[in-house]
Design a protein that fits this description.
Rossmann fold, 37% helix, 570 residues, 12% strand, TIM Barrel, alpha/beta, five-stranded parallel beta sheet
Length: 570
């Protein structure tokens, strides 16, 4: 078993000197990280600054905002921090998960389709470089939950898939890419959030599996990454009766799970972060401050997204003085945080350079890597004939129909190159979805392009269209990545897509979550089905290249959708 990357710093002169000078309350504060945003008003920035100065908290987790403003705030907060702050973010698919004007890499489900995990290592390294450029030291990734529940409302596309060994190998590549660049990885969501039907952001999920099943499946990737020396774990808010049978006891506040299982039985010596303490899966059960105490008593090393720092410090200090936890145990957890900071380079911390920041977060090499990841993850689930779909364009009449799901967030993802302002009609290039633009550029005037919008009442005459054309390219845009509301697919769209699939003329480009494809019961009857896992300019470029015979899909389906599309297909 490899040691955590900061293990050798535990007894360092800097760590021990800091430990000796800190008061009891200051040691506790080193375990507390609060939320910070770079898109809020001045009062929020001043509140964060006040907590940094007054309570000497250990770190910040940044959420939504803009990179330049975040860098300015990071410099401000670090300048006034007694001990340098550990700065973190959920950047599972890169900074674009949280920040405007930054890059997004593929979701882990798409990475699950890759056959070359070296590309995942390169992605991890690039994300780490971008984190470092922005003054961050911890990325809460990879997700190592094994997604074996298609209805999972919160993990799903964030998982590498349903096969545990594949999840481990891909997670290991992502972790090593980051930690080789000096950014700490964090495996989540311990002890496994993959088989739930409840989102812990809103309620407390219950996992009913027995210990044997948990050992065999859910815990397997966490154990493997501990063996590889991962720096931290994130403990989820889950009710798991087989591990702790007390009612309404989330894993985050369970000593049998955090201390007994993770630290003692599994031998984890890195930092145990709580998942955010504001999430309803735990916040519905405990008041702010009280939840921090419960999580501390359970054995967590970092209390993430604390909502009441003064009360948390007061309650934990009282518990230590009362002997509920030995001060030596607090010292050890504080030392682990300090040692991690030293390994992360915070003892020689320099302000974030603001000049050229946004440009530096968009290197050409990262853009090329993004296209490579898309090219190698797209998966051909069905192929009716040899050659490529548009090989006989000269003899065939082709139509392209873009089905656009108009959900709250679809416009930016689906039609990022133009405004949604038309119903079903044949359009010129200026109003095509990006995939259609790419085809029109390569095949000017040779394909008839249509768009259908879910909120438009105009009807698409499928019978007439199928009579008019020999082949129909069907692309689906604006799909939600989460299972809620059928991934954004309307009943009308489902009916139309089934009719087209059953026609024998359809080539489907599914630009979204593979589980959503299961809603189209006749999708397996299409001539070809290409799955890109998500919608981006990169995946649409890959799809266009496949249609034109310039790309041979290499991806393998990482999850089972239904009896027609099973794991490993492609």
């Amino acid at each position: 078993m490899k040691k955590t990357p900061f293990h050798s710093y535990l007894q360092s002169e800097w760590v021990q000197s800091q430990l000796k000078r800190l008061s009891l309350e200051e040691k506790i504060a080193q375990l507390i990280h609060i939320a910070a945003y770079s898109n809020r008003d001045e009062s929020h920035y001043q509140k964060v600054l006040s907590l940094v100065k007054t309570y000497k908290i250990g770190g910040l987790i940044f959420f939504q905002g803009h990179p330049l403003k975040q860098a300015e705030l990071t410099n401000l907060y670090q300048e006034h921090s007694d001990i340098p702050l550990m700065i973190s973010m959920d950047a599972e698919w890169g900074l674009g998960m949280r920040l405007d004007d930054t890059l997004s890499f593929p979701y882990q489900m798409a990475l699950g389709a890759l056959q070359d995990n070296r590309l995942i290592y390169e992605m991890g390294a690039e994300i780490a470089r971008q984190c470092s450029r922005l003054g961050m030291q911890v990325n809460f990734a990879p997700v190592v939950d094994i997604n074996n529940n298609p209805a999972n409302p919160v993990i799903g596309f964030r998982s590498f898939g349903e096969e545990k060994e594949a999840v481990v190998q891909k997670a290991k590549a992502y972790m090593q890419g980051m930690q080789d660049q000096g950014v700490m990885a964090s495996a989540k969501h311990f002890p496994g959030h993959g088989d739930t039907a409840t989102d812990s952001h809103f309620d407390l999920p219950v996992i009913h599996h027995n210990k044997a099943r948990l050992e065999e499946v859910e815990l397997y990737p966490f154990r493997a990454l501990i063996d590889e020396g991962i720096g931290s774990m994130m403990v989820a808010h889950l009710q798991i009766p087989a591990l702790d049978d007390r009612e309404n006891t989330p894993s985050t506040v369970s000593k049998p799970i955090v201390t007994g299982l993770l630290k003692e039985k599994m031998g984890f010596e890195g930092l145990a972060f709580t998942d955010a303490l504001d999430m309803k899966g735990i916040a519905n059960l405990y008041e702010p401050g009280e939840v921090d105490l419960k999580a501390f008593l359970a054995g967590n090393d970092v209390l993430l997204f604390s909502e009441d720092v003064p009360t948390a410090v007061e309650k934990i200090a009282r518990a230590v003085r009362a002997g509920e936890v030995a001060e030596e145990e607090l010292d050890l957890r504080c030392a682990k945080n300090l040692a991690a900071k030293q390994w992360l380079g915070l003892t020689s911390h320099q302000p974030v350079v603001l000049e050229n920041l946004v440009e530096d977060l968009h290197p050409q090499s990262a853009i090329e890597l993004n296209q490579q990841l898309a090219d190698q993850s797209v998966t051909l689930l069905k192929k009716q004939s040899t050659g490529f779909p548009m090989a006989h364009l000269a003899e065939e009449r082709w139509a392209s129909i873009a089905f656009v799901c108009q959900t709250e967030t679809s416009a930016s993802g689906a039609l990022q190159h133009h405004t949604i302002d038309k119903g079903f009609q044949e359009n010129t290039e200026s109003s095509l979805v990006f995939l259609q633009q790419l085809l029109e550029k390569q095949l000017p005037g040779k394909v008839s392009h249509y768009q259908v919008f879910s909120q438009d009442k105009k009807n698409l005459d499928i019978a007439q269209l199928l009579e008019q054309y020999d082949r129909v390219l069907v692309s689906i845009h604006g799909l939600k990545m989460k299972a809620l509301d059928n991934f954004g697919l309307s009943p009308d769209f489902i009916e139309k897509l089934n009719r087209l699939a059953a026609s024998g003329k359809a080539t489907i480009c599914w630009l979204g979550n593979p589980y959503a494809l299961g809603l189209i019961e006749k999708s397996h009857q299409a001539r070809e089905v290409l799955l890109t896992y998500q919608e981006s300019s990169y995946t649409q470029q890959a799809a266009a290249n496949w249609l034109l015979g310039k790309l041979q899909p290499q991806g393998k389906l990482p999850v089972t959708v239904n009896q027609h599309f099973v794991r490993g297909q492609g």
